[in-house]
Design a protein that fits this description.
This protein is an alpha/beta fold and 262 residues long. It has a single domain, classed as Rossmann fold, CATH 3.40.50.720. It is 48% helix and 16% strand. Helix 4 runs parallel beside helix 5. 44% of the residues are buried. The chain has a 7-stranded parallel β-sheet with strand order 3-2-1-4-5-6-7, with helices on both faces. The mean pLDDT is 87.
């Protein structure tokens, strides 16, 4: 049985992406942290009922060392063949200078955003190439295209890695029947903002998107085998303008969107 594996699937983009796969009749394995177990179970039940697919929920902490290999082993126990991999799970630490940040939290962010994503991509890419088919969708960010400006050093760097890694993987996979796409999402109405410490989004209102069209753009790009997609005209404008704006101006704009944490 072929299926899609979607991490961070209890809410937001992950939930929307799981629904898109299920709507196309593709079984899903949905993953979230244990604190979101109830939400994840509800998502799985909704997908089964609405789309008549198999939906397997798995709860685990993907920010722990070795989480990628552990998740693959748990999926193998289900007896499903993962044809689609969506690395959506991630979080940000925003609004703090690096010297004010919790080193443990920063390490977990890099572990989840970078290491686990890399492990899952590497492990499943090899299997997909052997099968001669498959698609990988990694969630990057417009932050990967903006010049460094402080107050989100670790997060921006992690997403720059996802962009670079995904584009290199796409090149490696060329001609194998397997593709790798990265979705460069801009500000989106999900729980990410609250967990990251973002407060007033009013200065970015023209750029904020709902999760459904962002997920739809990523899903369509993945199914088409595109290397990258950046949904939203406003995000494209930000990407084009960022290299022309001094770092201090970007910092002033971004800092105005963060909750004071002191």
């Amino acid at each position: 049985m072929t299926a899609a594996l979607i991490t961070g699937a209890s809410t937001g983009l992950g939930r929307e992406l799981a629904n898109l796969f299920a709507a196309d009749g593709i079984d899903v394995v949905v993953v979230s942290s244990e604190r979101s177990a109830a939400q994840l179970a509800a998502v799985a039940e909704e997908l089964r009922t609405r789309h008549d697919v198999r939906a397997h929920p798995i709860t685990m902490d993907l920010a722990q060392p070795g989480a990628g290999a552990e998740l693959v082993a748990r999926v193998d126990e289900l007896g499903v063949d993962i044809q689609y991999l969506v690395n959506n799970a991630g979080f940000g630490i925003l609004g703090l200078k690096i010297q004010e940040s919790d080193p443990v939290a920063v390490s977990k962010m890099v572990q989840l955003n970078v290491v686990t994503l890399t492990d899952l991509t590497t492990l499943y890419a090899a299997r997909m190439v052997m099968a001669g088919r498959g698609a990988i969708l990694n969630i990057s960010s417009i932050a990967a295209y903006v010049i460094p400006h402080g107050l989100e050093a670790g997060y921006s760097a992690s997403k720059a890695y996802v962009r670079s890694f995904s584009e290199a993987v796409a090149s490696d996979l060329h001609g194998t029947g397997v593709t790798c796409t990265h979705l460069a999402a801009g500000p989106t109405r999900t729980e990410f903002a609250q967990t990251a410490g973002v407060g007033d989004w009013s200065r970015l209102n023209r750029f904020i998107m709902d999760p459904a069209p962002v997920a739809a753009a990523g899903y369509a790009a993945m199914r088409a085998g595109r290397v990258m997609v950046m949904p939203g005209l406003g995000n494209k404008v930000m990407r084009a303008a960022a290299p022309l704006s001094p770092s201090r101006r970007l910092k002033a704009l971004v800092s105005g969107c963060f909750v004071a944490r002191r």
